[in-house]
Specification:
The chain is mostly helical. 85% of the residues lie in helices and 0% in strands. The longest helix is centred in the middle third of the chain and has 42 residues.
Length: 549
Amino acid sequence: MNEEYTNDSQVRHSEPDTKSKMLSGSAWMTVGSITSRILGAVYVIPWVTWFGAYSNQANALFAQGYNIYNIFLTVATAGLPSAISKMVAHYNGLNEYGVSRRLYYSSMYVAMAMGVVCATIMMVAAPGLSNGDPDVVPVIRSLAWAVLIIPCLAMSRGFLQGYNWMAPSAISQFVEQVFRVIYMLLATYLIMKVQSGSWVSAVTQSTFAAFIGAIGAIAVIAWSWMNHRKEMKAMVSQGINNMQVSTFELIMKMVYQSIPFVVIESGLAIFMLVDQFTFPHMLDRVGHFTQYQETVLYALFAFNANKIFTIIISLAAAMAVTVIPLLAEARAVNDHNGMRHQIENVLLLFYFVMIPAALGLAAVAQQVYTVFYKYDHAGVVVLEFAAFVSIPIGLYTVAAAMMQGISENRRMMKYLGIGLIIKLLLQYPCIMFAQGLGPLLSTCIAMFIIDYMIIHSFNMEFGLHFNKMSRPTNQILAYSLIMFVVTKAVMLGLGYFVSPYGRFSAFFLAVIGIMVGAGIFTFLALKFRLADEIIGPRSAALRRKFHIG
């Protein structure tokens, strides 16, 4: 398109500037995402306790409802938040702030229509989506209310992210989770402990809490919008405002940009849906399991482990949200070197954060699982394995976002399609080989192949400097392994003196393990100047603060 081209001298950002934006944006989104994920995991402790003997069944029912909900939510938002973030950054990069503003207003009409349509389908089609389980029907219908209003919320977040204003999104994520958790815990306590009611009703109210959380988040975004209103007005008045784009054309562009986002962003949800609909049937063929055993095994990886390892995957999600508008800006001015630098920076930042986090979780998996769910050997094994699987899943989240940021949507959809075929082909062999770990194993292999294809594609197009990236990458891996071994040894050693099987003692050990692991990796990263490669001059100040030579 003609408006997408401008010469390199126009709106060019230096590498330090974009790296600073990446770190700042990622920091905000990481704080918001991590705190909301932690809240979304910590509630499990009392929630599971109040369900008592029904806890695994409740976990499985909750997971089944949310898998359906995630697909509908992705369709309801139609990939538009990410598309809008990218398009707003593109037009802002061209100094056409007025077009960005009209783009947002147009998107809200689309969001309201999509919310109504998808929520209605969920209400009507719930019995057909329940996989034959009547308990799933009220859960799906309770989540339809959230699907009704979240598209407008997501659209507003995407618009503000296009300006690289990440704080409102981060704060709204936290508030959304606070409202959701408070409601679901109060409802569950009243139903299960006060009224001695149905566990299905308690799960249904727990999922309806997504609607309550969305209301809280909308209030935060509305407040942030009012705060930035004068600033946005000034940008519009000072912009070029030469571009003539009709409302219909803007909507068509949004739809065109959003279709790949729908498929790509729902990638992991599609993988989980494959597990939901295939795991029980395939497990029947590889062994003699009761329905209760199948439900428990499904709950172990689809809910129990998922709730915990998605905390560290949210680190990758925070980077993904930040990198799309930055890459879109570089693409808008045809800044080839800028895009290459962004991709290299994001990959190194991902390795720096995700690898030690995943290995750290694996090292304290027994203690963390016991705190959340009480000790269960099978559950611990699943969480340990899931911690390693989180690395390729997290890399998919970031790499797919970068593909979208540089407008390689069609190629990314092709890679995801190949990965999904691999997942389907490997699902039964992996379940036959590893039973309850089978779905995670097939997802891991499929995600690794997708990640390889994406990074290979980046290298072919931009010529990534792997020789420069190899040293910090090897350092990250080496220091993470050292941290893992030492932390695991400390946990095993302390286990002889403090019982790791009780919740309170496990919490005490987990805190020590996390402090030891974080301390070792931080010391090695600062001591041997790895941090200098990732966060720049800030590392020198940290060395002085911690008295590291």
